[in-house]
Amino acid sequence: MHIRDILQPSKSTLSFEFFPPNTTEGRDRLHDTLSQLAACRPDFVSITYGAGGSTRHATTQLVEHVKGTTSLDPVPHFTCVNHQRDEIDSLLAHYAAHGVSNILALRGDPPRHLPNHDHRQDYCLRCEDLVRHIKAFNESGVHPDKRGFGIGVAGFPEGHPATPNRLLEMDHLKAKVDAGADYICTQLFFDNRDFHDFRERCELAGIRVPILAGILPVTSLSGLKRMAELAGGARVPARLHRALLQVKDDPAAVLEVGLHHATEQCSELLHQGVSGIHLYTLNQAAPILEILKRLGRLRA
Predict the structure, then answer these.
(1) Residue-range domain boundaries for the chain
(2) Is 17 a catalytic residue?
(3) Which of 58, 160, 216, 222 has the greatest number of C-beta atoms within 10 Å?
(4) 3-295: which CATH topology?
(5) Angle made by CA atoms 218, 223, 225, in degrees to the nearest 5
(6) Segments in 41-188 forming alpha helices (H)
(7) Which of 17, 128, 158, 169 is catalytic?
């Protein structure tokens, strides 16, 4: 379903994010997770390029699996990195042929096997260039939906790690939206005040598209550190950090602190009329199911 039909002013959407696993055990675990979370009837799910910007092949395979074997509506991440024009058009045509309705456009990180990749060699230098190119592809009529792909872009409530100037950061985000983005999905954050400030700055910048809040449930201290690093340095509020340190030697208690904090975040955001909650699952079903249960939002 096109994202414009999914995002409605009268409701908050629910979506999940998964990453392509790189082992047989991980694939089996993810397939079980997909089966469990499909029962929650999310509005869509996003599929990443994998930790550290791994190759697109695994993403394409997972998107095809989700589209062909589940009731879930996959939104593949699509980056500028290491792509030339013919590769971009070929992949867009492939997704269109497989009934994919939406794309999340990102500048992206270099793949781990290309740590010295020069962005200047990419066809699209910036995310706004990729958004503009997808819009042009939409006009070609290749996609069965006459509107073409719906397009999402990323937002950074705590600030983009590569753009310390917050005013310049908003200029870049506005450029992505003006190029044709339909919605913004934020990077993870642990303090809702950062999200509310970000949403207000978007309003001041004239950004009017829906903004989905990206929430990561803390399930372990090691996982928190790893995800914070991948996110470019997420801030952990002192209140949350203190609670985690007090129970750091008890994994079950750490999980409970994380679930409680994420549930509080989601509850307050929903009360404030957020356009949608986007849960970073880390390919785990149990924490997500528990949060939705506590929110009273398990869908029948």
Answers:
(1) 3-295
(2) yes
(3) 216
(4) TIM Barrel (3.20.20)
(5) 100
(6) 56-69, 85-97, 127-138, 166-178
(7) 17
